[in-house]
Specification:
- This protein has 372 residues and is an alpha/beta fold.
- The chain has one domain: Rossmann fold.
- It is 44% helix and 16% strand.
- The chain has 12 helices and 7 strands.
- The protein has a 7-stranded mixed beta sheet, sandwiched between helices.
- Helix 6 links the parallel strand 4 and strand 5.
- The chain starts with 10 loop residues before the first helix and ends with a strand.
- The mean pLDDT is 90.
- Bound molecules: S-adenosylmethionine.
- S-adenosylmethionine binds next to helix 2, helix 3 and strand 2.
Length: 372
């Protein structure tokens, strides 16, 4: 199974300031959807977060939805399902829920809500969101942030001379586009089955500025180029096998808005009567924290942005370049571990030497759907 999971043991949470900025930027849309979504009279209100990771960001966003539902219906019982892949660090998620009362939604409710008997139940689901995660017709609010650009699988040799699809050749990009489109339809079909009529979905995912595939449509491309160049240096030094590098690419596909809404608006699509698109735009995300550091402390800036990148790429790099069936290895040797550490430390040195070159301002697609 492809490991598209993040680093565990709190390392994703500690290095996900960028994803937190994205959730902050999408917060008005979460609020927009939460004040419009129907609240069922006879049953528990159900929220699902698809691709929650360790939960710091997930828990914060769910808290906003719960707050909004309770403003309209104090005491409403609410269930929250945090979904991610089976190998996700769910222990950290539950620590965020139970050991950090100041940020957890489990202790939200004001006095009036608690008196009204408000109950919130938290659950976890270890299953791919490209299949079913919840029962038919049971989800009132679907949330997913920074997750659905991860593909269900990456065909070998998808991109021979780079690791990121912004640098794929036209043919490679077309093939990847088909994989991205299939996954996206699978995701939407599964959610269509799970969501109740009137339910809302708020989703963010890594995107690109226009339909065409070209490197300048992906801000932060220079960081991907840096990672690729550093990997090539390690190939040249014999620390990574060239053929394995050529076979590998990050299983990420950044959709344009056009690709995102296509299956929902194409009259021939079997998703055409399932959702209304209430909002679909690309946003370029700027994170003040990184901008301030870039101006003031190049070394710390380099550390922070490379650790952010590492939080979501290291498990995939380890599996794809070292522990794969091609090499017939399941575990990293000490030498491999050294190579992985060297990849990220070299990247830090290069960013610190020229911080102006390396921004972390990705493009994100924001989407709000209403289930018909
Ligand atoms: C960058 S993290 C985002 C976490 C959180 N939503 C946030 O905004 O900080 C992406 C998450 O998506 C999860 N993910 C990737 N593919 C998935 C799949 N097919 N099914 C469920 N989760 C998936 C990864 O394991 C990872 O935890």
């Amino acid at each position: 199974m492809l490991l598209t999971r993040m680093r565990g043991d709190g390392l994703y949470d500690a290095n996900s300031e960028l994803q937190r900025c994205i959730l902050e930027a999408v917060a008005p849309l979460i609020n927009y959807a939460a004040v419009r979504v129907p609240i069922p009279a006879q049953r528990t209100f159900s929220i699902v977060d698809y691709g929650c990771s360790e939960g710091r960001n997930s828990v914060g966003s769910v808290k906003k939805i719960i707050h909004s539902v309770h403003e309209r219906d104090p005491g409403k019982w609410i269930s929250v399902l945090h979904n991610d892949l089976p190998m996700n660090d769910f222990n950290s998620l539950f620590e965020n829920l139970y050991a950090a009362p100041e940020s957890s939604y489990l202790s939200t409710g004001n006095e009036e809500q608690i008196r009204a008997g408000s109950k919130i139940f938290a659950f976890a689901s270890g299953a791919s969101f490209y299949g079913r995660v919840a029962p038919d017709d049971s989800v009132d609010f679907a949330l997913s942030s920074c997750a659905t650009h991860w593909l269900s699988a990456m065909p070998d040799y998808s991109i021979c001379n780079h690791i990121f699809h912004g640098n794929a050749t036209a043919d490679e990009a077309r093939r990847l586009g088909r994989v991205g489109a299939n996954d996206w339809k699978k995701f939407l079909h599964a959610r269509a089955d799970e969501m109740t009529s009137g339910a809302r979905m708020v989703l963010t995912m890594a995107g690109r500025l226009h339909q065409a595939n070209s490197a300048d449509l992906y801000p932060s491309q220079n960081l991907m180029d840096l990672m690729n160049q550093t990997l090539l240096d390690l190939v040249a030094e014999g620390r990574i096998v060239k053929e394995i590098y050529e076979r590998f690419a990050l299983p990420i596909y950044c959709r344009s808005v056009e690709e995102t809404v296509a299956p929902l608006q194409d009259t021939h699509s079997d998703l055409i009567n399932k959702f209304t698109v209430e909002y679909a735009e690309t946003h370029r995300i700027k994170c003040d924290h990184f901008e301030r550091l870039r101006m003031s402390d190049a070394t710390w800036y380099a550390h922070e942005i490379v650790e952010s990148l590492r939080a979501f790429t290291q498990p995939v790099i380890e599996q794809g370049l070292f522990c794969n069936s091609f090499r017939n290895d399941e575990h990293l040797t000490a030498k491999d571990r050294g190579t992985v550490a060297s990849l990220y430390s070299r990247m830090k040195q290069r960013v610190a030497a020229d911080p102006e070159q390396y921004d972390l301002e990705p493009v994100s697609v924001f989407l709000v759907l209403s289930r018909i």
